[in-house]
Amino acid sequence: MAANFVDAQVPAAPAAVAQDRTASYLLPPRALGAQTYRLSPVERAQRVKQGVPARELVAVSQAMGLPREQLMRVLGLARSTVERKIAQRGTLSQPEGERLIGLERLIGQVDAMVRESAGGDSGEGAADFDAARWFARWMAEPVAALGGMAPQDLLDTADGREAVSTLLLQIQSGAYA
């Protein structure tokens, strides 16, 4: 039986503040993943190469409702290095940025799955669904299809993120129940 993502409601998170080097703007938590998910692979690669602002990690951790230390640990990022980059308003290295963008893509994938299953933004429950919070809870639980590993144990590598993405597609299609 396919998982019903719409039924997995969590309270909406407050809007996260995302900042770049020149401006500060309010970004709804679900926009982080949805925007990244809609990018083509080439556009995501360009975004990583241009440098992902380190403060984006703060926005993602807030959207997920996780302490940023926990998020850094899950992504395999050196805490002191990333904290320094945040304080200096710097950018993440390419490997660090790729991990964060990869996580955002997975959150966007969940958001897109829910909206598709619910018939769009106006579908029952889709507007209230918080993909970032749902993903934060789901990634911590062991999954039999991943050999008993929790999805968070795979988020620090590209192949691991691809395995999690494939699992989400299988759940959506009902191929894994």
UniProtKB/TrEMBL annotation:
<dbReference type="Pfam" id="PF20432">
    <property type="entry name" value="Xre-like-HTH"/>
</dbReference>
<feature type="domain" description="Antitoxin Xre-like helix-turn-helix">
    <location>
        <begin position="43"/>
        <end position="103"/>
    </location>
</feature>
<dbReference type="InterPro" id="IPR024467">
    <property type="entry name" value="Xre/MbcA/ParS-like_toxin-bd"/>
</dbReference>
<feature type="domain" description="Antitoxin Xre/MbcA/ParS-like toxin-binding">
    <location>
        <begin position="129"/>
        <end position="174"/>
    </location>
</feature>
<dbReference type="Pfam" id="PF09722">
    <property type="entry name" value="Xre_MbcA_ParS_C"/>
</dbReference>
<protein>
    <submittedName>
        <fullName>Putative toxin-antitoxin system antitoxin component (TIGR02293 family)</fullName>
    </submittedName>
</protein>
<dbReference type="GO" id="GO:0003677">
    <property type="term" value="F:DNA binding"/>
</dbReference>
<dbReference type="InterPro" id="IPR046847">
    <property type="entry name" value="Xre-like_HTH"/>
</dbReference>
